[in-house]
Amino acid sequence: MMRILSVTLLLFLVAVQIAFAAGPRVDIVLGEKAPALEKRAAEDIAANLRKVYDAEVKIAADAPKDAENVIFVASTKSDEQIWKLLSLHWPKLSTQGHALRSIKFRERPALLVAGGNPAAAYWGAAEFAQQLGIRPMLYGDLYPIAPPPLSDFLKNLDVLAEPEMKDRIWAMDTLPIDQGSWSLDEQKRLLRQLAQLKYNRLIIFDHPWQPFVHFEFDGVKKKTGVLWYGWQFPVSGDTAGRAAFKGGRLFENPDFAGKTTYEQRLEVGQNLVRGLIEEAQSLGMSVGLGFDPLAFPKEFASVCPGARPLPEPVELSVTPSPDQKLDDEKLLKLTKAQLRAYINAYPDLDTFYFSGDSADKMATLLTSDNKLLLRKDGKSLNVISVGGETQKIPFTLVSDFNFLAYAGSRRAFNIKGVAQGFECRDLVMPVCGEGVDGSVIKALFQMVSAKALIDNNDPRFHVLVPGVILKHYASSDPPPEWWSQVRANYLGAMNDMYRANSRAREGGRSYTLYLARRCEFGYEYMNCVDATRKAGIAKSKKDTAEQRAQLEKAVESMNAACSALAAVARDQSDRGMIAVCNEFGYRPLLKELEKLDAE
Amino acid sequence: MKPQNPRSHAPRGNASLGRSASRVAPGRGAARKCVPTQSVGTRTVLAVAFVVVFATISSAEDWPQFRGENSSGVSKSDKPLPTKFSVTENFRWSAKLGDGIGSPIIAGGKVFCTAMTGEQKLGVFAFDAATGKPLWKQEFDTGKLPRITPPNSHASATPASDGKRVYVHFSTLGLIALDAATGEIVWKRPLPVPAYLMDWGSGSSPIVYRDMVIFNQDDDLASALFAIDSASGEIRWKADRKEMLAGYAIPVLCEAGGRTDLVVAGSGKLKGYDPASGKELWHANTLLRTTMTSPVVKGDLIYTAVQSYGDESRTLKYALLEWLDTNQDGSLARDEVPKEFWERFDQSDKDKSKFLSGGELDTAFQSSENMIGGGTTIQAVRGGGSGDVTETHVVFNLHNRSPSNLTSPLVVGNQLFVVKKGGLSSSFDAATGETHWELARIKNIGDYYGSPVAGHGKIYVPGENGFIVVLEQGPKMKFLAKNDIGEPCLASPAIADGRIFIRGRETLFCFGEEAK
């Protein structure tokens, strides 16, 4: 009796299981000793199939005999057992090459996801998602609004991807408006998206005043260790766009919250960088650290030959004067002490990227010391000189890093059927539907035009430092014509993105609405700048009524700019932008208005 | 779609207390006073309880719908209200609800409010107004949600209550009546899901008039005014408003000419209806294309303040070509309009070209009899008319830059007050339209969605940024305070019994003067 009950119960449970598995069954075959990245590739494919098809997915070393949908994930490092199964179908691949190939397995259609190495197999899984219509944005995946039927999809794939660009680099700087404000967890999520986009190199740029490395030299200990030059960004009280901070009172990197001493910040900073290195390498990326080998925290002025302050918004660093000999023994020792400190702090680093005007010479000088660049494991770090280029931060008020990252990723590989110049349509259409990409591309062009106008006329115009807005109040020159062109570009881009958003009815609106609001931010920012200048002109003419009216308009525009961004703020960079605009724009303008009222 | 058992959310014993209270004073809910009846001489305590309950009822101030009595936004209580308040000053209580922008209401000592409590879940909450004690919570599965445009919320409607029941509207569910004491579902009345060309999303709220729930739903597809039996949920009458475009005006009641008219503002027209039958009695062709604000009534005058984007020539066509014509070719393809409008598109595509252009576009979605454009207006129209009252009943019609497209006007004392984006306020003499002040800043720059309310000689202006500015009521602008609730606020405050209730984007707050 008990046995009958048990069988009945079992059958019931099986029935329940089947009832819950609404989608098709898929078997993913993976070698028993598959490298970690191949396992990850298989897991990603499984997760995507579950999400898109509600599929019942099993990952195992073999597929059941009656399996209808079989996917193999393999690389040249896979088990022999897998190779035996797949050798007939294996495409010719370079180490970075990867392929999706519909094959026959046990006389039934199957799919091979192949990579020239485990990382390439992982990119193969990313290509699988791409072909399915999933789009990896930097903030997360967008899913297709009309995915193809699974069985048809698996039967008809023949994609071979070989790199046109072998180094696909993502550089992180450490400002409040970029990843310098992201916690390790947030950065890890970003790295996973970058891996989906097949990026294979990460560079983390450091500055002498940041808390990522500690060193001592000639009796001097490093003691400057702050983020963002030590600026504080309160976001309580009257803060434009404060909804983005969800009740927070201070904008800060969450990992550094409450860390008040140098030692505490150093510990957090090093954990953060180590975490980044570990995560990036686990995703098949190499990791480099970028810094100026001739820049030191200001406390090292006494031991740095010919020391002078580095031109920065806050003077926290020193560097040798231009006429200082670089092969000076003391200077080289100081440089080496800092370099070794980096190697000791981050023993798994792959590369140093030297920045600064003397980067080439320093690279030559320092690499001549064979032991200097040795890691604990006996391998030697590479040194690459990037010169002064990295000091030109590709900063802009409005841009679409999602598109840039995506387009860069697609252009980096030679994939049959992927047309250059159609990346926008390729990005947008599967997740937003027909008719959207035309408006998006128009908007992107206008954003690029705005940036070009700024870069050509005043590259420091939008570098957000103290006084970035009020410097226009101090001038009585008429607003230059290019300002109105920039504003018109942002306005046009905003309108096009709102049209794109209206059309994206079936999905993908997190992408279109964000960009519409971001363009609105740019437009209102330009309105603020323009009104501030007009207030300055009125001030010089002692036209107090006009001065007040324009100042009010400037305040209102900056408020509107921050509110527009706050409505869609999705990460710490967005919140950082709002916090910085408050501290360097909104509040100083309010103070001027109050001062005027008091007068 | 099956609603959860309401009893599972009701506090134990609350249902029976509710029934006990309804015998004493139907529809009033201060029933907790009856609890001790088991422990002392029943008759004596019942008598005491009756006195206590009666006292509570007679002194309790209700704010039973959007902006209180007849949507006026004015509290008639003489109980002092706090000028300064925050979570540390004059703070009574708060409750985390979830995303929402519908305003709180108060009936029988209970506060009712709605929120999204899950991705596809609407929550209706009841709290004790004095203490903030949760009384019940009812949740509904909403199904797939329609598109909306931020900062709108799916929980956008303000409930209404007659004390017995709470009436809640939700886009995909229609109207729902809940027992005010227990939260049990009394009835459900599905209504057409509103459709918006620009994806604004739902935002209309019901009111209660006698034994009817009145609900106006002006959308871009099938605008209509509904009267629903408050006890049964049956539709008593429905008045088509096909010439109306999307809007969010709350119906108001105006006693004039010996009768009570139901007045609804909409595209181009202010209309008076017979509340018993839904028959249109009069209309004034004085409004603008898009009317999102609600009128207010004082005496026999109906006040509206409306801003509709563009000038008087900007009919709907121009907005469609600006925002829906994705490829900017000067005509609308079928795919460029939302699916809900495809049938209307096909009807309007007279030449079967699969495009709407020129004259086709003029009348595809805007009634040829109501081709009104944009502009601004602040006006007073006398109620009680008949037929076209445009030339006969308009007391004043101001065209200045003062009105907001979102916040409704406030008429308190002899003052007509409006506030708009940027924190720009204006005030006029309610009888003559003469200006007290115009476009003066209230020291809180930002957006304004919630409408101002007044009580105890003060005007409370909720800013989207979570600052509530308090002004002195009167013809001279006097700034009293700027109070911070710490989160965005798109709802209108409610006032009852010396307390002000403010619904932040996530949290419901109650403030009241601390006992001295």
Structural class by sheet pairing and helices of chain B: mainly beta
Report the helical percentage of chain A.
40-55%
- Overall shape of chain B: it is globular
Mean pLDDT of chain A: 92
CA gyration radius of chain B, whole angstroms: 23 Å
Distance between the termini of chain B: 50 Å
Q: Can you give the mean pLDDT of chain B? A: 89
Briefly summarize what is shown:
Chain A has 599 residues and is α/β, with parallel strands linked by helices.
Structural commentary:
With 599 residues, chain A is an alpha/beta fold. In chain A, 46% of the residues lie in helices and 15% in strands. A 7-stranded mixed beta sheet of chain A has the order 2-1-3-5-4-8-21, sandwiched between helices. The radius of gyration of chain A is 28 Å and the shape is globular. Mean pLDDT of chain A is 92; it is low at 1-20. Chain B is mostly beta strands. Chain B contains 5 helices and 35 strands. In chain B, strand 25 and strand 26 (415-420) form a beta hairpin. In chain B, helix 4 (342-348) packs across helix 5 (358-364). The longest helix of chain B is centred in the N-terminal third of the chain and has 18 residues, at 42-59. Chain B is globular. Chain B starts with 13 loop residues before the first helix and ends with a strand.
What is the topology?
The complex is a heterodimer of chains A (599) and B (516).
Chain A: H1 2-20, E1 25-30, H2 36-53, E2 56-60, E3 70-75, H3 80-86, E4 98-105, E5 108-115, H4 118-132, E6 135-137, E7 140-142, H5 150-155, E8 158-163, E9 169-172, H6 184-196, E10 201-205, E11 216-217, E12 220-221, E13 233-234, E14 250-251, H7 262-282, E15 286-291, E16 296-297, E17 307-309, E18 317-320, H8 329-345, E19 351-355, H9 359-367, E20 382-387, H10 401-411, E21 413-415, H11 423-432, H12 437-457, H13 470-473, H14 481-503, H15 509-540, H16 544-566, H17 572-598
Chain B: H1 14-24, H2 42-59, E1 91-96, E2 105-107, E3 110-118, E4 121-128, E5 134-141, E6 160-161, E7 165-170, E8 174-179, E9 185-189, E10 207-209, E11 212-217, E12 224-229, E13 235-240, E14 252-256, E15 259-265, E16 270-273, E17 280-284, E18 296-298, E19 301-308, H3 316-323, E20 332-333, H4 342-348, E21 355-356, H5 358-364, E22 375-382, E23 387-388, E24 394-398, E25 410-412, E26 415-420, E27 424-429, E28 435-441, E29 453-455, E30 458-462, E31 467-472, E32 479-484, E33 494-496, E34 499-503, E35 507-512
Parallel strand pairs in B: 17-23
Antiparallel strand pairs in B: 1-35, 2-3, 3-4, 4-5, 6-7, 7-8, 8-9, 10-11, 11-12, 12-13, 14-15, 15-16, 16-17, 18-19, 19-22, 20-21, 22-24, 25-26, 26-27, 27-28, 29-30, 30-31, 31-32, 33-34, 34-35
Helix pairs in contact in B: 4-5
